[in-house]
Amino acid sequence: MSVFQYVKPFLKKYWPYYFFGTLLLMAIDGLQLITPLVVGAFTDALMDGTLTRESIPKYIIYIMVIATGVAIGRFGWRMTIIKTARRLEYWLRNQVFTHLEKMSLNYFNHHKTGDLMAHCTNDINAVRNAFGGGVIMFVDAFFMGLMTVTLMATRIDLKLTLVAFLPLPLIVVFIITLGRQVRNRFQKVQEAFSQLTDVVQESFSGIRIIKSFVQEKQSLNTFNEKNENNFRKNMHMVKLFGFVHPLVGFISMLSTLIAIVYGGRLVIDGGITIGKFVSFLSFVGMLAWPMMALGFVYNNLQRGMVSLKRLNVILDTPPEIIDLDVIDQFIGAYKPDASIEFDHLTFTYPGTDTPALNDISFELRPGETLAVVGKTGSGKTTLVNLILRLYQVPDESIKIGGVDLNRIPIDKVRSMIGYVPQDNFLFSRNIAYNLRFGNDALTEDEMIRATKSAQVYDEIMSFPKAFNTELGERGVNMSGGQKQRVSIARALAMKPDIIILDDSLSAVDTKTEESILQHLKEDLENTTSILIAHRISTIKHADQIIVLDQGELVEKGTHESLLQLNGHYADMYQKQLLEEKLSKE
Ligand SMILES: Nc1ncnc2c1ncn2[C@@H]1O[C@H](COP(=O)(O)OP(=O)(O)OP(=O)(O)O)[C@@H](O)[C@H]1O
Questions:
Q1: Mutation test residue for ligand 1: of 105, 380, 505, 550, the one with most atoms within 8 Å of CB
Q2: Which residue spans traverse the membrane (predicted)?
Q3: How far apart are CA 142 and CA 135, in angstroms?
Q4: CA dist., res. 163 & res. 284, Å (int)
Q5: For position 329, what pLDDT does the model report?
Q6: Which domain holds residue 505?
Q7: Quick one: pLDDT at residue 290?
């Protein structure tokens, strides 16, 4: 596959901008080259005494016209090439972000946030540089170089041009030879930057843990280490470029030296005029830049290609979970009923050997409540992650409304479900934004109702700006219990067909818990509920309770029937009774 496969549609659409920009650039290069000729003609007129006071304004006008033309042209190519490169940056970033959003949780479990952020910033910048500055430098250097040499050879002296030009290609060769080094070091700079981003991101999102474990010093050490590594990798790059400039200057000095020695002799022998000699020296000075630029362009394009390849890897990775074989009836507003059936479901996380869930079967009718209990790591969260299709589910093993989950469009499944995750993530926007997250059309009254049902309304009203109170990153200015209840209200506000509470009542007292459950029943009468919980008080009224143990469904029934069974559930119940008794004593 071509490295340009993903940018091809963009280039197809926007190539005219590059075309006109290139034409403008070439026109400017042409204009710029006239200046030394004007200066040369001026010198000759001065030397041979033909320069008069009246002819001076003519030279001034020439130079002014050229300068104005160059200024307009420069604006023109900025507005074409640079603008298009910025547009490409915007377009590519959108593509990468949109693609990443489609990836499954598994992808994010295996790719660090810092790396992904580096791709979305550094790599895309490198591509923009190649398609903006790179293109400009290439056109500029190539035509400027070509036209300068042509003018020198035709308007001044061919032999002098050849001799003076001799050392200059060394610059191109030298810079291209360094290209390999540049690529290697650039790759290392990118890696160092993404490691640094990772540490910064983790340090801030885990700041509470860092502080509570008094690990600020260690955290700072890790940061310093990565920061220093980033600095060192950048210094390697700086050293490389630091070496380039003096050497290029030296080589171009050789050309000037040859021009002075050989050109001077030509002037003495009457081969060329002093004016032509002056023009020639200006031309030699102007040639060092195109030679250097050609080398830089090569490296700039190489960097851009390295980054584009890395972005291609992301874009080439297909989302694990996609809508295939969707049943036609789901096109439009139709949705299945909220019954849920697990039919011998066995699921193993990608990259692991042991199934997290093994041969799970149960059925839940619309409006029923299922409680899921089990020790930590027994597979409770996995079970609900699969209903949400956050991981790829084996065909025919989960059904909603009697239809295989894999044949219902993903967005339809997810919009049926109000999910309250274990981590109660809230966005660092205001409370209203968070409540409206799954339901844009949520009215103020509905917001009040949802928060009242989740028993958090009074607390929100006590905040200075009520629903408009801004939350810090991850809602740090709210207590754990408040965050939990806002998350519940967010799910309730969706008026979902299925509601899933993953250990979402752990931070509230039993009385508040009872009120929330009561409201759930009243507000969401026909909603199928799945409650993952540890407290018997949360689950004992459920229509069905399943007990998971190491991924196996070991018990199924109601509170009473499971107590009679005298197994895992009864054991858990006894332990909780004992704990309660002890805590009261
Ligand atoms: N992304 C993952 N990749 C690989 N294995 C995983 C992943 N997530 C969970 N597991 C494993 O799957 C098993 C079930 O985990 P799960 O989170 O479903 O348990 P749980 O019952 O919800 O636990 P808890 O009560 O602690 O939340 C565990 O052994 C866990 O290590």
A1: 380
A2: 17-39, 59-77, 135-154, 160-178, 240-262, 277-301
A3: 11
A4: 11
A5: 65
A6: 328-426+487-584
A7: 81
